[in-house]
Amino acid sequence: MADKEKRRSAALPSGMSSGKVVKSDSEREFLEQAGVGDLLRGAILKMVEARSDDPIGFLADHFCNLASVTDSGTAGCGDEDQQQQQQQSTGLAGAGAHEQQRLNRALWHLRLAHHSQRSAFSNNVRVAYDLLNLNGCLRQASENPEGPDGSCLDVPPDAEGSGGVKGGLYTQTLECLCSEGGVPASTSAPLLRRLCCQDHEAVPYDVFRHGVLTCAVFSDYIRQAQRLYAEVCCPDEGPATRALCSAVLGTLKEALETSQDCDANCFVNANAKSSACLEANAKAIRYLEASAKISPHKLAQAMAGAQTRGPGGNMDAKEFENAAADLFIARVKVVS
Amino acid sequence: MNRLSSAVPAEQYLADSQVLFYLNDAVTQLLDHKEEYTQFGLVRYFAEYFSSVKNSNHVLFRELNYIRATQHNRASFIRVFWRCFRQIGKSGDLLSVPEYRSLLQLLCPDFPLEAVQSASRIVLADDISDGLMSFSDFIYAFQLQFCYQEFLDSVQVIYQDLLAGKSPNTVIVPTSSSVEQLVSVATEESDREEQQQDAVDSSTLAECVDALCERFKHSCPSRTCLREVLEQTDKVSYYGFLQSLANHESINQTIGALPSKEELLIDPEMDQELDKLIAQISVSPGSNSSGSAIGGLKEVQRRASPRRNIHHRRKMEVESDGSTEETDSSEN
């Protein structure tokens, strides 16, 4: 971080002095007063964290986002409390629009980092949650500090009495994540049924995080499945043979089962801090095993095996996608 | 999202994105026009600046150095030029080099003549002082020349070396200083008529050019494209080579500023406007005091007038509303 700051301040004077004869102090003062340095530093850090493919577009969105936040009043608790009280008098329309705006902003935050970038993704989920959480500021004091695997911590149910994201908003967020990730509504419906919460419920942070993470992973998974199907099936020859598809799906299933076990271990050992290190290793090994099962070599073996057995008709892309989705969804915990 | 982003170090990512350059320019502009830009707040200023960069609206009326600084800026400039002046293509007018330069100067006050001359050589390949070019021919040649200028200069040096009979092994990939010296010699020579008949062996040129691509990375046409063009003939002349490149669709697509040749002159909004006005005029022919028709006609002329005497009107038109649709009001 320090060298980024250096670079920013180094870039600034050099850029200016090349254009002007003398770099005036009044200009530097002006910039300092206006807080330009902090603004730009924050923007650059966000940009480098997100590593978007379109850095300029990212910055444009970032500043526009920021501008709309400052324009529309703050996202602070004051307004939201007032809003809650006034909800009956101002009518639901105003609140609905405001909510939509918050949802959009939260989604924007969630899109910033890929779920494989653990810390960045966790930060963004936190920000999104706070945005959507009506009573966020009041609850800050009582929040549990976030561990590296938030979903593993057991949070006592009573702590959520006074706040949490509205169930309806939470479900909407998940729906948007899935559709943005390229998953058709029919495929994601069963997943959402497992993850969703009632409209009136207050969703605690780790449920929120679990849901968001699952949807993000699911979108990737479906995209992978689609790609897998495309590899297996040659478009000119029509849909791929059923046997081949089943073989591929079987490999997927095995891989998921292997990684599932390591999640289970994680839950069991959550409170044993001393064995945290061992746990991490065990997890890593399990993930490696799982990825080995899905390696091209294994897949090729499975496919070769399938071709010797008699084909039983064809499987088209949609069916393949649904079957893959089922495998995944079967492993998702139902939110209760 | 770039999943392999951890492989790219932060400095590299920053450098490749050229964001620091744009931030530098944004702050410089801010300081130059403090009162104007701080009216709506700093955040809004940066939001508008970067939105205009993203939408390629940022190069209008900027100085040459800014426009040339990044590939994105160059491509944006081509696009702006196209949007402002495509009506010329529709009218079928042929313009000369100084005329095209005047048009360019409307968009960029310090646009140099040499760049226009180099572009026109791609189209005309011989004595360019009297040559007339169609809009469509000119713009594709100009695009190639403007976006890949440094690369093309180096290619020319290589070409001259090959022509002079040096074997490919001794053809050194020129450094920037040597290019400057040799290009000035090369352009003098190429004005002579014999030059057009000269040609070198395509495959040799292809080898040398391929080596050049290493150095230029994103500031040159793709290797496959270059190879394709050079495979078409056994012998190739420099301007023949450039002509093929200029008309090559994949180069056009890579730069991304212009549509394909068939769609270059399509401008549905303008067509609608003109149709409306023509309808109005034909209803009240030879109108003298018919305010709306005259007002309408003046408006058309204000927006895009491909008449001979375009320069004065063009200046008014461009300065008042810039390109046909989006103009970022925060820019000059």
From TrEMBL, chain A:
Give any GO molecular function from the UniProt entry.
microtubule binding
Q: Region (Disordered) spans which residues?
A: 1-25, 74-98
InterPro entries of this UniProt entry?
A: DD_TPGS1 (IPR047502), TPGS1 (IPR039235), TPGS1_C (IPR057632)
Domain of life per record:
Eukaryota
Please list the residue ranges annotated as the Tubulin polyglutamylase complex subunit 1-like C-terminal domain: 98-274, 281-333
Instruction: Name the chain's protein.
Output: Tubulin polyglutamylase complex subunit 1
Q: Which organism is it from?
A: Poecilia formosa
Automatic annotation (TrEMBL), chain B:
Ordered alphabetically, the record's keywords are: Cytoplasm, Cytoskeleton, Microtubule, Phosphoprotein
Spell out the SUPFAM superfamilies in the cross-references.
EF-hand
Cite the record's Acidic residues compositional bias ranges.
Answer: 319-332
Q: What does UniProt give as the signal peptide span?
A: none
Q: Which GO terms describe its cellular component?
A: centriolar satellite; microtubule
Q: What is its main location?
A: cytoplasm
Question: What InterPro entries does UniProt report for this protein, alphabetically?
Answer: CSTPP1 (IPR038968), EF-hand-dom_pair (IPR011992)
Bias kind Basic residues: ranges: 304-315
Give the region (Disordered) as residue ranges: 284-332
Biased amino acid composition, Low complexity: 284-296
On whether Phosphoprotein is a keyword of this UniProt record, the answer is yes
Which protein family is it in?
Belongs to the CSTPP1 family.
**What role is this protein assigned?**
Regulator of the tubulin polyglutamylase complex (TPGC) that controls cytoskeletal organization, nuclear shape, and cilium disassembly by balancing microtubule and actin assembly. Regulates the assembly and stability of the TPGC and thereby modulates polyglutamylation of the microtubule, which antagonizes MAP4 binding.
Q: What is this protein called?
A: Centriolar satellite-associated tubulin polyglutamylase complex regulator 1
Q: Which organism is it from?
A: Poecilia formosa
Q: What is the lineage of its organism?
A: Eukaryota, Metazoa, Chordata, Craniata, Vertebrata
